[in-house]
Amino acid sequence: MSDTPPDRLSVDPSSPFHDADVLQRGVGIRFKGEEKTNVEEYCVSEGWVRLALGNRVDRKGKALTVKLQGVVEPYFQNG
Fold this sequence. Notes:
Helices cover about 10% and strands about 50% of the residues.
């Protein structure tokens, strides 16, 4: 497995960008230089993250998110 996280990753199992093996390894996200723990999805090349809005969910049970633009720096937490 590569030492660099993928360009795009999602925690939602129904997403085409979901990768359970990578998520199990542990991916941390720095967004605009600040550590974020509520990231639902990110894309490095397009420069955005989707952050969960607290415990709120939509009528299908998925977390409500907000999409923010900026510098995204993913890294592996567990070497």
